[in-house]
Amino acid sequence: MHVTELVGLFAALLLVANTLFQLALAAGVPWGNAAYGGKVAQEDGSLSTRYRIMSLVSAMFMGILILVILSASGIVTSSPLSTGVTVWACRGASMLFALNTAGNLTSGSKVERWVMGAATTCLTVAFGLIGWVL
């Protein structure tokens, strides 16, 4: 397996974990203190309907990014996405994850700051490597 494929697989696994987390939030699992700055959880720890919908949209976006990173890294070879699209999508995702990392690292939630901050830092680097370097 090539370095590009390893980076893509690592990023895809992080995205799968994040997708499962977002789907759990959307389903009402009381982990709201670990998301959205830790400030929007209801008394029972779950999210309001508005934030559940946002988590569902986030999970769908992560699903698309999984396909993008697997295609761009060469793991998935029969993708409807062209190479140019996946490279630019990786570049854009690296910038979005960099902004997300800044938000995570300044969060009042320790879980969001340390766990999600580390995850989005890794995703920033992975998408950056695939989109800009490898």
Describe the structure.
The protein is 72% helix and 0% strand. The chain is mostly helical and 134 residues long. The chain has one domain (3-133). The longest helix has 25 residues, at 3-27. It is elongated, with a radius of gyration of 15 Å. The two termini are 14 Å apart. The model has no long low-confidence stretch (mean pLDDT 94).
Number of strands: 0
What is the global morphology? elongated
> Could you tell me the strand content as a percent range?
under 5%
Distance between the termini: 14 Å
The level of helicity is over 70%
In brief:
With 134 residues, the protein is mainly α.
Salient structural properties:
elongated, 4 helices, 72% helix, mainly alpha, 134 residues, 0% strand
How do the strands and helices of this protein lay out in sequence?
Blueprint: H1 3-27, H2 49-72, H3 83-105, H4 110-133
Helix pairs in contact: 1-2, 1-4, 2-3, 3-4
